[in-house]
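Exercise 3.2. Students should predict the tertiary structure of the chain below and write it as structure tokens, then compare their answer with the key that follows.

Predict this chain's 3D structure.
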Amino acid sequence: MYAWLFLRSSGAFGPAEKAFGGHLQPASDASTVSLQLNREELAGNADAVIATAARIKREVVGAPFQHLLESLLAGTITQAKAFAVRLRSSEIVYFCPGADRVTVGFGLHFPDSTDAAVVRIVCSQFAEVQRTIGTAPTVNFCEVGTGATIPREITSSRLPLLPEGTEGFTGYLTLSYFPSHADSPDKMENTVTLVSSFRTYLNYHLKAAKSYIHSRMRNRVSSLLQVLERAKTSDPTAKKVKKTFQGKAIKKAA
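Answer key:
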């Protein structure tokens, strides 16, 4: 509840309200919002209304991202305060404004140990590949249990942290965005869409990696079974017949 109240009071929810006009209606406790559509509007311009409704997740989840990026471009980012939102019950997303950047941190939690191991590899690759792509946002991954320090942007904001002793806690991944990532309408749209769907994107890579591993394992098992099926045991007491290169049996002279 506090997160939504803060988003609305600080203006971080403004981009979503602007995108949907009067269609977004907050609940009585201001902890959730709902989308209300007028049947008369649907009859007059159904395609546009449906297209807008289909973007509700992107607009609602992406609202705080866009708010901070717009503040960064406007030069008012120093007036913004850091805040955190629980987009998932066991995870926290941190929004940390800086003097020349906006840092978004993801506290990751994967209960399954196999999932957690794959996610650590994927996140580590994000940090490695980013070094070779000059236009990509700065990536920092803090893996739990390795002695790595929690990103400074998160600790300096004094926001609540995920308990490290919790089973499935994977670590923190931060993405730092600069004005060059949102200095045009197309860049703003692309950046907000990508960062707001990052957690879903990470989950997709997790499933794709597991599917690839399982596929390789099944192919390996199939090849081993084929080798076993082709293997034939020979009788050591049977009389051996020598054959020529053409496959004809060699008969001994009487």
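Discussion points: The chain has eight helices and seven strands. The helical segments are 2-10, 14-20, 39-54, 56-74, 113-130, 152-156, 185-196, 198-230.
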